[in-house]
């Protein structure tokens, strides 16, 4: 990556930084500058190795993410760690996949830091839904089909007060639905959306590892998405996009960076894939 202008980073401030959806080129210049100036980087598992390679030698790295099948560190422990590092006067970058404030628990970390008087600065990142839509060439809004866009989680905090996501209500919004962490509950989610009134013919897509090496996608309908995603062996991280727009993806929009030249050519030729 080319060097952004060298600049300062304040010690004792915690920077909650979004690393984007995967492709290292989707990192912001601001994020890159902060990573290069950090004294300690606390990061999650969805951060690309090329981005981690930008952490300066001598900078402390702390991995706090969860890997498939393993438990992650309790959030309270991560919060306490950030507080302790900031209190040591270090330049702390808390690096998270996508955007820190979109299903990234950035809000909880910011609250914990603010509660003890530690200033926080948030640097947005490209969230997975945007990366996945670009990768699949699906416009998330389109004047002809939808004017609303909803980000939902398929995996809810078990201790959360009040009701879980009311999928049936979302079926009535006439919106594009982007469902994070929905893979393991795909059957129940798609069923409830249909029970809420969405037609089984509603276009739906699931995109695995969007903008990363190994990207895969299944374009289906609400009625057969679970079966087709299962048959294709779609695995985490994956995001689901439901709505009319999923059927309207001009080929030219497909995200081609990081794909081989042959794939680029194939995608550019209609019917070539
Ligand atoms: N803060 C992150 C979301 C963290 S939740 C963001 O803004 O993107 C983790 C979930 O995000 C995954 O379970 C998956 O649903 C989605 N996700 C993250 N990266 C992804 C990728 N490259 N491709 C598809 N889905 C992704």
Describe this structure in words.
The chain has two domains: 14-123, Cobalt-precorrin-4 Transmethylase, domain 1; 128-263, Tetrapyrrole methylase, C-terminal domain (Methyltransferase, Cobalt-precorrin-4 Transmethylase, Domain 2, 2-Layer Sandwich). Helices cover 27% and strands 18% of the residues. The chain contains nine helices and ten strands. The protein has helices spanning 29-37, 49-52, 75-87, 106-115, 128-136, 167-170, 186-195, 225-232, 261-268; strands spanning 14-18, 40-43, 60-63, 92-96, 120-123, 149-153, 176-180, 203-208, 216-221, 238-242. A five-stranded parallel beta sheet has the order 3-2-4-1-5, with helices on both faces. Helix 3 (75-87) packs across helix 4 (106-115). The chain binds S-adenosyl-L-homocysteine. S-adenosyl-L-homocysteine binds next to helix 5 and strand 10. Residues 21-22, 46, 96-99, 102-104, 127-128, 131-132, 180-181, 207, 209-212, 236-239 line the site of S-adenosyl-L-homocysteine (SAH).
Write a concise keyword list for the protein shown above.
273 residues, alpha/beta, Cobalt-precorrin-4 Transmethylase, domain 1, Methyltransferase, Cobalt-precorrin-4 Transmethylase, Domain 2, 5-stranded parallel sheet, 5-stranded mixed sheet, 10 strands, disordered C terminus, binds S-adenosyl-L-homocysteine
SSE blueprint:
Elements: E1 14-18, H1 29-37, E2 40-43, H2 49-52, E3 60-63, H3 75-87, E4 92-96, H4 106-115, E5 120-123, H5 128-136, E6 149-153, H6 167-170, E7 176-180, H7 186-195, E8 203-208, E9 216-221, H8 225-232, E10 238-242, H9 261-268
Parallel strand pairs: 1-4, 1-5, 2-3, 2-4, 6-7
Antiparallel strand pairs: 7-10, 8-9, 8-10
Helix pairs in contact: 3-4
Bound molecules: S-adenosyl-L-homocysteine.
Residues 21-22, 46, 96-99, 102-104, 127-128, 131-132, 180-181, 207, 209-212, 236-239 line the site of S-adenosyl-L-homocysteine (SAH).
